Hints:
By secondary structure, this protein is α+β, with helices and mostly antiparallel strands. It has helices at 36-44, 77-88, 100-109, 122-133, 173-187, 200-204, 212-222, 239-242; strands spanning 2-4, 27-31, 48-49, 58-60, 65-69, 92-96, 137-144, 147-157, 160-168, 192-196, 208-210. The strands form two sheets. Strands 6-7-8-9-10-5-11 form a seven-stranded mixed β-sheet, with helices on both faces. A hairpin with a 2-residue loop joins strand 8 (147-157) and strand 9 (160-168).
Amino acid sequence: MVRLHPNSLAFPDPREALGPESEAPGLLAVGGDLRAERLIEAYRHGVFPWYGPGQPILWWCLQPRMVLKTADFKLHPSLRKTLKKTLRSPDHELRVNHDPAAVIRACAETARAGQAGTWILPEMQDAYIELARRGVVQSFETWHQGQLVGGLYGLRLGRMFFGESMFARQKDASKLALCHLIALCRRDSIPWIDCQQNTRHLASLGAAEVGLTEFLQHLRQTVDTEAPPPWTYDSQAWTHLLGP
């Protein structure tokens, strides 16, 4: 197990993460900190932090990797109907980067099946909120009658988006936020969204596993390319998802 040096931002080769036969598949390194520069360096190489209360910071690179190719997103008929209804409703708003801190905290506070607590610990919330201030973390938000009811957040580096977490307080609220993310990714030629782990929910939306070699190669081609302009809500972007 590699212990990160406090004065260095370097990570070991992601391909050296523990394999599927180990007790902690994907575990790569331990230690370091959550400063913005280290987090950005980690994601550039396909590495992310994930640990629980009382544990040191643990860094992971999973193999295989779950990704949602934006061209493969499944807009099921029922979700399409809900999205169109939401866009016509004066009581609903879909916003981008309006209140990323609230989205991050809501993701941390939302109870999830099979989980006793959250991995989005207070220090991790602070770290991602700082990345939001720097324009690296992006939030997609669903609002109903002035209340935040769902959303997601993640990191945008170059032309790659790394999804981190999502939450919903109303049916389909997080999916609606995801729809606008997909629309903007398609508009700006961002072909992949990193989903990290395989879940049935993500698979139902079109996500699929890719090998680590393919994933890392894609990162090399996208994370250091010129980033699109800062994201804001764009009503015209819906044509990239719903058609003209």
